[in-house]
Each structure stands twice: as structure tokens, then as C-alpha cells.
Design a protein that fits this description.
The complex is a heterodimer of chains A (288) and B (455). Chain A has 288 residues and is of the alpha/beta class. Chain A folds into two domains: 55 residues; 212 residues, Rossmann fold (3-Layer(aba) Sandwich), CATH 3.40.50. Chain A has twelve helices and six strands. In chain A, strands 3-2-1-4-5-6 form a six-stranded parallel sheet, sandwiched between helices. In chain A, helix 4 runs parallel beside helix 11 and helix 4 packs antiparallel against helix 12. By secondary structure, chain B is of the alpha+beta class. Among the domains of chain B are: 64 residues, no CATH class; 92 residues, no CATH class; 79 residues, no CATH class. Chain B is 37% helix and 29% strand. The relative contact order of chain B is 0.09. About 1% of the residues of chain B have low confidence. The chains are: A alpha/beta (288), B alpha+beta (455). Chains A and B meet through helix 2, helix 3, helix 6, helix 9 and helix 10 of A and strand 16, helix 2, helix 4, helix 5 and helix 6 of B.
């Protein structure tokens, strides 16, 4: 028996890989529901987006691509969903991630042509995708804070249209027209706080990878960011706040991945526990 | 030796700056007032400060100091919490003058008036927050009024209509055009290409007396009397607020700022300039290092060739981004970014899940008391971050005093409290270290572990 327990810390890593794979794919085959807790940081993002006045726009800095799509896609999907539901106008930008604009565009198009088809939202009036800028992020931030900064920094949008020709951009010219900034990337830049929130007071919210979130909680506690969407959990919680009583309406990537993520975590927790049982059994053998 | 002393001194000053900027309150405590804004009045009071002409006498420039904002706030001496009994009648200041009787359930944030309850009978104040079980009322002192004025400098320039010097006119939605002053109309936005207002953008205010008067967008906004304001948001968080954005009913703290807070904009600008130069220097350095490696056939010189080929390839592919006219460039862009970079990124990141599971299994062992502490907190955090944690401890929510033991709540406490504090301390140390390392680079002390060898 003791030998069996000792051998628990020597399981071949390929078995661990197999269990992780099985745990993550099983919930896609069998529909499972688990209760969600709504964290204050997610509630902060929801409440900030919800309070956007009709004469202002929201800037979504969506700088992610296939690498962090699993965590970041849901974080922009739910905010786009919320803004389209409220009729809030928004601008999408990206920094230093060449493939980011096409992912954001696909997420918006899916909502506009699906859930909100009957509202007949039009590009250029309801939202604008300004594409990607490759430069140091704080230079871009300083630029958009200047008078007519958005027009100077982004003379053309993602589709190549001069921004002056887009109806939305006639009213959204610089930072003074922006109500809040939702920065979504694997590790959102703290320069948003130094260059935008500090000097101008514009509310900032973050969407980040779960593994990076511990570095950003200090900004939530200090009140420098209004809220934060943490990994897949953040978008699933936001989706649950958007549709509290309608499970079928929760279609963001976060809502679809939260149960597989939970199962994956359970496998890791079990692996740690099993490894430690083996470790303690080995210690007992050494004492004998 | 002087270099080491310089590094120590600058690092100390940087630490002092951090202490003053982030640990010491941004406003002088004894002279800071907290209050609810009673009114915001726009009271322009123009005052001519300066007038001059350029050497040729072509233009006349006038600079005016204009007081734009006057904000009055009354001192809030304390906050009183009234139990929220929905049926209770309170007296509220109505739309018209006088008080109206309303049920407590109809009270909203920013309402003013008398709130009658227990010991706080005849408590006059402003409702700060209404929750299910309580109403927070900011009690107004009613004696202290804060006045806050902001000034900005506006500049007016007059150009003779007959002048042949061209300016750039920007009309909404159109491309900019160069025009002579006689074509300008009031409301036009113009940019000057010549001194004394080179590069500045203004608006034509009027055309009269053979002259075009152009007002420039205000370039300087400075707090009058070194006052800064911090606003309390509905979530309870505090944010710095510009005078223009303050509105009546907002809970604010206004006071004289500490000296260093005012330097924030200058420090940011310096960092931007430095960063822009660093990009250029980085590219130059990359070229220098790799070209030298190739020329001298140093070990692994072929990697330098790959760097240059990759840069060239990426630049050509980038040319095709959104380029509908040059089809081959667009196809190359698709191949590089969509068919190579995208799947490679997905693959690398998805492998992480498997490696992390394997690493956690092999290395997370309770070998010491510190390791046990870390493992227990890691397990709580992991369970708290997923719905399984809620599923396991949801039943605790039905009991009044143990609901705080739900796994997501414990996880949240760890992240908001101990973890945040540790991260703050760690970053403080890292930033001071970064300053010292930066100075070592500047002073050519970059070799060696700790100043052991000077170049």
C-alpha cells in the first residue's frame, strides 16, 4: 500500500496531459451548469460601462490575438454586447498587435448581425475600428489626449476610410469626448493610469489574463481602475450580470469556457493533492 | 567613487519622490476640505495681459488671462448613516423652495434636506449613497465655503485681410486646404505655418476692419492658487478631477497640492521624449550589433542574417496590410500574419495549460511551513477563481456569520489584501532597482554584479 502511495508522485507526465485534455474537453460534450460568484472587480467594469452618457463614446483598446484569444476575446465580447444593448457608441483601437483589429471586428460583426440585427447598427455611426498602431503605448496615449488627438493619431480607420468621413468620429475627436477606456490585452499597460487616468481623470477598466491579474489588483484597491475582467472568469461573470436569468443568452466565449476551465483546474488541484500524498508517504518510508 | 555616490543619492531622491508622491497625501492634509459641490458657475472675467506684434508688423497678438470656473463647495463635517426603513417619512428639499415630505424609499443619492431618525433628528445634509439597508448622509457644516478658480490663457491674433500669407484651413470632414486670409470666415479652423504662432490651431472669431481675428484654443490651464480636486465616484473610489469636469452634487476633496504632484505632466512628457529616442536607438543598436557579427564572422553570425531577412520580410508583408491595390503584397501579408503567426501563437499558448498542470504536480510539495502556506493559499485562490469554489461553499451563504467563509470571498480577500500589499512592496523595490540600474548604464558601470569593475 505504501509503495502504491509513494508511486503517486511518480506518475508519468503524459497521464497528466491526458487527464487535462479529457477534463477540458468533457464539458463540451456534456452540458454542465455551475454557480457563478460576481466579484467586485467585474461589477466595477459593468457599472462603469452602464453609466456611459449618450453624448460620449467608449474607447476599447483591444490588443490581443490568437495567443490570448481564450481569455481576452470574451472580455471584449461582453463589453461590446453591453454597449450595443445600451446603444452606447464606441471606438476600437489596438496597440502593437497587428492581428488584433480583425479579431475585434469579427466579434462586433457577430453581435451586430446576430443578436442585434433588428437594431440596424451601422459601422461608422455606432462603432469605429481605428486599427492598430505600432509605437510605444505612452506616445499613443499622449497623442490622443491632445486636441483632435484621435484624428491625428488615426487619420484612417481599419478599413482605410479617412476618419473625417465617419459620422461617429465627427463628434469623437480626442480624449475629452471619451467617457472611459476599456483596455483588453494579456497584460494591460499601467501607462493608462500614468498618462490618461492620472492627468485627465478618465475612468479606466482592464481586461487581463488570469495569470497576470495579481499585479493589477493593487490598482482596483487604490481606485485607480474602476474594475477589471480577470481571464475567462471575468467575462463569464460579466455575461451573467448582463443576462442574470437567461442562461441561453450567455454566448460569450467566457461563458462557454468557464466550465472546461473549472474542470481543468480541478485536475490540477487533484494532481497537487495526489503528488503530496505520495510525498508524505515517501517521508513516512524514510522515517521507518 | 563619485559615480557610486551619485547613484546612491539619485536612488534616494527617487525613493523620496515616491514617498512624497504616493505615500504622503497629494494634498496638504490640514488645509484640505471635503465637501459636496453646491454650484459651478462659469464667470469669464477677461483681463488683457500682453499685447505684441511680430517684427514685420504683419500680425498683432493679444494674450488674455480668463478666469473660467468658480466652484463653491461647503464643508462636510461628518457622515451619518440612517437605517433604511422604506416606510419612514423624511423631509427633502424639493424642486421648488421649501421642504417636501417623502418616504425614505424614494430618496436618491444627491437629494438634500432633513432626515429624521433616532439620535439624528433634524440632520441636514446631502444623501451620499442609498443601499438596501442604510442611507449615508453627508452632514453639511454650512459655514465654510471653498472657492476654487481656474485660469487659462487665451491668445488672439489679427491678420490683415490683404496679407498674402497662406494658412491651412480645416473644414469638418474635408481635407485641409491652404487659403489666403481674405477667404476666411468666422468659425473656420486654421493652422499657421509661420511665426509667431507656427503649428498652432485657432478659430476665426470675426472678420472686421480689414482684419481677421483668430482665437487660439487655450493652451494653458493651471489651477489657481495651487488647488487640486479629487472626486469620490459612486463606487467609492477616488479620482483626480479637472475643474471643468466637476458638477454640482459631487463629493469632492479640494486642497492645496503637494509640490511634486504638479510635476507629473512634465515627468510624463520627459518619459515620452526619452521613449521615442530609445526606439530609434534600439533599432540602430540592433543593426550595429548584427552587422558587426556578420562582418567579423563571429560565432552564430548567421543569426544576424536571419534577423535582417526577417525584418525585410516583415516590412514587405506589412506593406500589404489592408492594401487592396497590390494583390501579391496583401497575399504575402495574409500568409505571414494569418497563416503563420496566428496558428503559431495559438499553439504556443495552448501548450501552456499542459505544462502548467505537469509543473504544478511535480513541484508543489509541502516541504516546509512556507511551502504549505503557499500551497494552501494557491488552492484557495484556484478554487475561488472557478465556479467549483462557489458550488462547494454556496450553502454557507444561507448563514449570517459564516458567509464570509465562502471560497470566492476568501480568495478575494487574499487577492485584495495580502497579495496586493506584497505586489506593491515588490514593485517599489523593483522600481528603485531599475533606477539604480539605469544610472549604472548611463555612467558606464554596467559590467559586474555590483560596481566591481568600472569601464
Amino acid at each position: 500500500m505504501l509503495d502504491f502511495l509513494i508511486n503517486l508522485q511518480k506518475i508519468d507526465r503524459r497521464w497528466v496531459y491526458l487527464f487535462v485534455f479529457a477534463a477540458c474537453t468533457f464539458p463540451f460534450a456534456v452540458k454542465i451548469w455551475l454557480p457563478l460568484y460576481t466579484s467586485p472587480e467585474t461589477r466595477g467594469v459593468y457599472e462603469t460601462v452602464d453609466k456611459c452618457p449618450p453624448d460620449k463614446v467608449v474607447l476599447v483598446d483591444s490588443s490581443w490575438d490568437a495567443g490570448s484569444m481564450g481569455e481576452n476575446k470574451g472580455q471584449v465580447e461582453v463589453v461590446f454586447d453591453h454597449m450595443l444593448r445600451n446603444g452606447t457608441k464606441f471606438i476600437v483601437t489596438a496597440q502593437n498587435v497587428p492581428l488584433a483589429p480583425q479579431f475585434s471586428e469579427a466579434a462586433i460583426e457577430a453581435l451586430v448581425n446576430g443578436k442585434y440585427k433588428d437594431r440596424h447598427y451601422k459601422y461608422g455611426e455606432q462603432w469605429v475600428n481605428l486599427g492598430v498602431t505600432i509605437a510605444a503605448d505612452y506616445i499613443i496615449m499622449q497623442q490622443i489626449a491632445q486636441k483632435d488627438g484621435l484624428h491625428r493619431q488615426y487619420p484612417k480607420d481599419y478599413r482605410g476610410t479617412p476618419v473625417g468621413q465617419l459620422p461617429l468620429m465627427k463628434t469623437a475627436r480626442d480624449l475629452s469626448d471619451i467617457y472611459m477606456i476599456h483596455a483588453v490585452t494579456y497584460t494591460p499597460s499601467e501607462n493608462w493610469l500614468a498618462f490618461i487616468h492620472g492627468p485627465y481623470g478618465t475612468p479606466i477598466t482592464f481586461g487581463c489574463a488570469g495569470i497576470q491579474s495579481t499585479t493589477y489588483y493593487r490598482y482596483v484597491t487604490s481606485g485607480q481602475i474602476n474594475g477589471m475582467l480577470v481571464g475567462i472568469r471575468g467575462s463569464a461573470e460579466y455575461d451573467a450580470m448582463l443576462y442574470p436569468n437567461d442562461m441561453k443568452a450567455r454566448k460569450s466565449l467566457g461563458s462557454r469556457l468557464i466550465v472546461p476551465l473549472a474542470f481543468g483546474h480541478v485536475v490540477i488541484i487533484l494532481a497537487i493533492v495526489i503528488g503530496n500524498i505520495g510525498y508524505f508517504a515517501g517521508g513516512r518510508r524514510r522515517m521507518q | 567613487m563619485w559615480k557610486k555616490r551619485l547613484i546612491a543619492t539619485v536612488t534616494f531622491i527617487a525613493g523620496l519622490y515616491f514617498f512624497l508622491e504616493y505615500v504622503v497625501p497629494p494634498m496638504v492634509p490640514a488645509r484640505t476640505r471635503q465637501g459636496v459641490i453646491q454650484s459651478v458657475r462659469s464667470a469669464p472675467m477677461p483681463k488683457v495681459a500682453k499685447r505684441w506684434s511680430d517684427k514685420s508688423g504683419v500680425v498683432e497678438v493679444e494674450e488674455r488671462t480668463v478666469v473660467r470656473q468658480r466652484i463653491d463647495a461647503r464643508l462636510v463635517t461628518r457622515t451619518v448613516t440612517v437605517p433604511n426603513r422604506p416606510g419612514q417619512v423624511v423631509r427633502r428639499e424639493g424642486e421648488q423652495a421649501g421642504l417636501e415630505e417623502v418616504r425614505l424609499k424614494d430618496v436618491r443619492a444627491a437629494d438634500r434636506g432633513f432626515f429624521l431618525s433616532g439620535r439624528e433628528r433634524r440632520t441636514r445634509g446631502v444623501v451620499l449613497e442609498v443601499t438596501r439597508d442604510r442611507v449615508d448622509v453627508g452632514v453639511l457644516g454650512g459655514v465654510s465655503t471653498i472657492r476654487m478658480a481656474y485660469q487659462r490663457i487665451e491668445t488672439t491674433l489679427s491678420i490683415p485681410i490683404a496679407s498674402e500669407r497662406e494658412v491651412t484651413r480645416t473644414t469638418k470632414g474635408d481635407t485641409p486646404e491652404r487659403v489666403t486670409p481674405d477667404k476666411l470666415k468666422p468659425g473656420d479652423t486654421v493652422t499657421f505655418k509661420w511665426r509667431p504662432q507656427k503649428g498652432k490651431t485657432g478659430t476665426v472669431s470675426k472678420v472686421e476692419g480689414g482684419k481677421v481675428l483668430v482665437s487660439f484654443f487655450p493652451t494653458v490651464i493651471v489651477p489657481y492658487g495651487r488647488l487640486v480636486a479629487f472626486r469620490t465616484r459612486s463606487t467609492g473610489a477616488v479620482e483626480s478631477a479637472a475643474a471643468e469636469s466637476l458638477e454640482a452634487g459631487e463629493l469632492v476633496r479640494i486642497g492645496p497640492t503637494t509640490y511634486l504632484s504638479r510635476m507629473l505632466a512634465s515627468v510624463n512628457n520627459f518619459l515620452t521624449v526619452l521613449g521615442a529616442m530609445a526606439w530609434g536607438m534600439g533599432l540602430f543598436s540592433l543593426w550595429l550589433v548584427h552587422s558587426m557579427n556578420i562582418r567579423r564572422r563571429r560565432p552564430e553570425w548567421y543569426l544576424g542574417v536571419i534577423v535582417f531577412v526577417a525584418i525585410g520580410f516583415g516590412a514587405v508583408a506589412g506593406y500589404g496590410f489592408g492594401n487592396e491595390e497590390v494583390l501579391w503584397a496583401r497575399n504575402l501579408n495574409d500568409v505571414v500574419f494569418e497563416h503563420m503567426l496566428l496558428p503559431m501563437g495559438s499553439t504556443v499558448f495552448s501548450l501552456l495549460a499542459f505544462y502548467m498542470a505537469s509543473a504544478a504536480y511535480r513541484s508543489f510539495k509541502a516541504k516546509s511551513s512556507e511551502a504549505i502556506l503557499m500551497m494552501v493559499s494557491a488552492l484557495i485562490i484556484m478554487l475561488g477563481q472557478i465556479p467549483v469554489g462557489m458550488w462547494l461553499t454556496e450553502w454557507l451563504g444561507h448563514y449570517k456569520y459564516v458567509d464570509a467563509l465562502q471560497l470566492p470571498k476568501i480568495s478575494q480577500w487574499i487577492l485584495y489584501g495580502p497579495s496586493s500589499a506584497a505586489v506593491k512592496g515588490m514593485w517599489f523595490g523593483m522600481m528603485l532597482g531599475a533606477i539604480a540600474v539605469g544610472l549604472r548604464f548611463w555612467l558606464s558601470l554596467e559590467r559586474g554584479a555590483f560596481f566591481d569593475r568600472e569601464m
